[in-house]
Amino acid sequence: MPYYTKSEDWLQQSALLLQAFPATTIVTTKYHIKPARRIPKSEKKSTSAPTDTDTSTTTSPAKPAAMATAPTAAVKPPRGRLVLKTYCPQSGSTLKYKTSKAAEVTRLVQMLGTLGRRMAALPPAISSAGAAGEEDTAMADASGGGGGETSGVQTPATGAPGPGPAQQQQGQSQPGGGKGKKKKGKR
Amino acid sequence: MAGSHLSHDEFFIKLAALFMTRKDKDHGKVYLSQKRLSYGQDIPQPTEENPFPDLHIDSTLPVLIRAHNGKSKPKRGEKTKLSTVVNTDDLEAFYGKYAEVCKAGMLALKPRDRTKRKAKSKNKKKGAPAS
Question: Residue ranges under compositional bias (Low complexity) (chain A) (predicted)?
Answer without folding.
Answer: 47-77
